[in-house]
Design a protein that fits this description.
Elements (H helix, E strand, L loop, with lengths): L3 H22 L6 E4 L2 E9 H5 L17 E10 L9 E9 L4 E5 L1 E5 L2 E9 L5 E10 L6 E9 L3
Antiparallel strand pairs: 1-2, 2-3, 3-7, 4-5, 4-8, 6-7, 8-9
Length: about 160
């Protein structure tokens, strides 16, 4: 197999994920936010969409599917350099209007040479969510805290 083939597949997956995230996010006010010297991008994709393309997902990233299961992706950029932050640990807390709260450490996933922090969350279509992110780098004294109001989940 050509060595370029896995890179092309990874690039295709990254494009697919961004395409679905943008479709879902069209009704949402906030998929990008700036905090200090950083820009944080949020993507939410139905897990079933990712499960349709298991060969495109890096082998060390779990693939899940199921009703109301979503793949949440976070990308962090340094505004000064424009480069992706690829050496962070990211924890995400998802809260549905004060009803239930889930906190997970996000998986560091490399696709097409770009680092994204990902995990799966149960989210009910029609619900509104608050997302709290704690992003930590080894060189920082304290984590960068980001709060996002996600809006209504579509399916």
């Amino acid at each position: 197999m050509n060595r370029l083939y896995p890179s092309l597949l990874s690039g295709l997956l990254a494009g697919l994920l961004l395409a679905y995230a943008s479709q879902i996010g069209a009704a949402h006010r906030q998929l990008e936010t700036e905090v200090g010297d950083y820009t944080v991008h949020l993507g939410v994709v139905p897990a079933d969409r990712i499960a349709e393309y298991p060969d495109l997902v890096p082998h060390d990233h779990p693939i899940k599917s199921g009703k109301n299961l979503y793949h949440v992706l976070i990308a962090v950029y340094d505004k000064t350099t424009g480069r992706r932050v690829d050496d962070a640990s990211v924890a995400l807390t998802l809260e549905a209007l004060g009803l239930n709260t889930r906190r997970k450490s996000m998986h560091r996933v490399e696709m097409a040479g770009a680092i994204t922090y990902c995990s799966f969350f149960q989210m009910q279509p029609g619900d509104y969510y608050t997302i709290d992110l704690d992003i930590q780098r080894a060189t920082w004294q304290k984590p960068l805290h980001v709060e996002l109001d996600y809006g209504q989940v579509a399916h």
